[in-house]
Amino acid sequence: MNLPLHPVLKGIFGWLQVIWALLVLSVGASAHTGFENSTEVRIFPERVQIVVRTSVALAWRILGEQAPAQADEAAQVVAQPLLEIAAPGMVEVSAVGNRMTPDVVKCQFEINEDVAFVLTYPRPSQWPMTVNARFLRHLGSLDSGTISIFDQTADPFSREVEPIIGKVISANDSSLSFSPAGEAAPATGKTKPLALDSPRWRPVLGIPAVALLVAALGACWLVRRNFRSH
pTM above 0.90? Predict the structure, then answer.
């Protein structure tokens, strides 16, 4: 028996190709923004160190009109002192509502093409501490980064310490409040644990994946209906 399935399947495969193209585009657009950034806060017995790593593109955007025209080694030499001047304004740090200023500010260009801003603050006597990534105001509403808090009070020299809390941050939600173990409980609010090993673009897979599943179920239903009608 010859069943007229070919036109039906051809249409279904066409829709599947469209959905797959949208999936690829959505992943690419989210995974390669050019403004990648991450913020690490490490609590030590006598100090708190904040390391903000950004792409060169984001560092240049922070400099604005002062940014060099190029990003080669000579341009980095020119940009480094300018970035160190800009660094304290990149994050707003407070403890129990009291604004804090860094004791030491450094900026360096790393071998993996990241720009690392290192700010060292005295350890506060009262908690919680709040870090607001103000540099995110230079980005769009769809851009994001991560912030992770590490408590190294008991083990200052270890590099294997797991974060005690973390979250995805954006221009609309750029701050995180926290306390080390044994101190006042951290503020909750919108804070939620962050799976640091998860790609940043993973949430965008939900919509295309659901659409793909619906298309596949629709294909099965159409084939079954066509078969029964013959």
Answer: no
